[in-house]
Task: structure prediction
Amino acid sequence: MTVPILYEDNHLLFVEKPVNMPVQEDNSRDKDLLSFLKEDLKIRYQKPGNVYLALVHRLDRPVGGVMVFAKTSKAASRLSDAIRRNAMQKHYLAVVRGKPPKYHDTLEDYLVKDRHKNKVSIAGSTHKKAKKAVLEYETIASSNNVSLLSIRLHTGRPHQIRVQFASRGCPLYGDQKYGTDVNQQGQQIALWSHTLAIEHPTKKEEIKIHSNPPNDYPWNLWKG
Result:
């Protein structure tokens, strides 16, 4: 397995997460991205002992695309603070079933996670465990009863994109958890972390990194 490095300096490591790879160790015991990258840093820089690399945000296992890791504790602290302040800009590409009712819109919901089932649902704003979820989307193109969307997350709730679009009758292509009636086993979810933009933890300048989805169906419906 290879993990493309998109940008690296003394404080930051941006990579393209492979699809279906967990970001950290889980019950599956499959190779996880964090462990893989620590091993890679240890080999490339011939580091003795343990390698420091901090996980500051996550992507669902089936989702691929750009992620950033912190190589120093200073970077980890400042990135975590930026995420708490919603100062990290996160843009995704997604292919959904059907066509959203509006070309461009902002979606706001309150989400509750069932940790036993690892599933998220929409609840009322007064639910004591509900957390507000906000995203903005724009429809790029539609064909073959699917649509390509550009999405900016304003909050980073678990399964947020998947749940918010499924609740509006537009589940993500390939999502068997929230689109069982239109998706089939074995289909790859069409959700991709396209762009991350943050303020560099020491240089105090914006750094923006992109990653493009693979040239596979349904992404290639709009290639060329």
